[in-house]
Amino acid sequence: MSRIGKLPVVIPEGVKCQIDGQQIVITGPKGTLKRELHPEMIVTIADGAIRVTRPSDSIQHRALHGLTRALIQNMVIGVTKGYERILQIEGVGYLVSLQGKSLNFALGFSHAVVIDPPEGITFAVDSPQVFRVIGIDKELVGQTAANLRALRPPEPYKGKGIRYQNEYVRRKVGKAGVK
């Protein structure tokens, strides 16, 4: 048995769960999430918990077992607590500001970069160098944060760019002086 897949997903107070065929809908205080599950995985709701079982011990079923359970767990956490990724900007003159719901970046380009949030995502700016990506879908929050980081990834010589909070950027030594 999969160590992760065999654990039940406990449904907390205020969260409603429905399974319709292979689609699961989880509704909580922060919103509603839907996901289409793999057709071979068996998902049941009983005694205030969601259980995932697999039809056989094949390699594919073992992999899908833990994955399906983890996806459902992430949905439950998302509708109760939500997810956020904190990013920071390093570099002289590199700034971010909130313009309505959009982020306005000054990243050393000849123009300002304005990013609108996708559906289900909100942005918060803590300081001109620190901002957060907030949402209930873990996958969407992570992908949005990765897309923002890709605007100006941290470079290895001076460390300038957008990075995740507490991300270690390996620094390189520049050119040696000519003798």
Topology readout:
Layout: E1 9-10, E2 16-20, E3 23-28, E4 31-36, E5 42-46, E6 49-53, H1 59-80, E7 83-90, E8 95-99, E9 102-106, E10 113-115, E11 121-127, E12 130-135, H2 138-149, E13 161-164
Antiparallel strand pairs: 1-6, 2-3, 3-4, 5-6, 7-12, 7-13, 8-9, 9-10, 11-12
What does this protein look like?
This protein has 179 residues and is an alpha+beta fold. The protein folds into 2 domains: 9-80, Outer Surface Protein A, domain 3 (Alpha-Beta Complex); 83-164, Alpha-Beta Complex (Outer Surface Protein A, domain 3). It is 19% helix and 37% strand. The chain has helices spanning 59-80, 138-149, and strands at 9-10, 16-20, 23-28, 31-36, 42-46, 49-53, 83-90, 95-99, 102-106, 113-115, 121-127, 130-135, 161-164. Strand 11 (121-127) and strand 12 form a beta hairpin. The longest helix has 22 residues, at 59-80. The radius of gyration is 21 Å and the shape is elongated. The N and C termini lie far apart (65 Å). The mean pLDDT is 93.
What number is the mean pLDDT?
93
Strand order across the largest sheet: 11-12-7-13
By CATH, the superfamily of the largest domain comes out as Ribosomal protein L6
Distance between the termini: 65 Å
Task: Enumerate the spans where pLDDT stays under 50 for 5 or more consecutive residues.
Answer: none
Range of strand content: 35-45%
Query: Helicity level, as a percent range?
Result: 10-25%
Largest beta-sheet details: 4 strands, antiparallel
Task: Provide a short characterization of the protein structure.
By secondary structure, this protein is of the alpha+beta class.
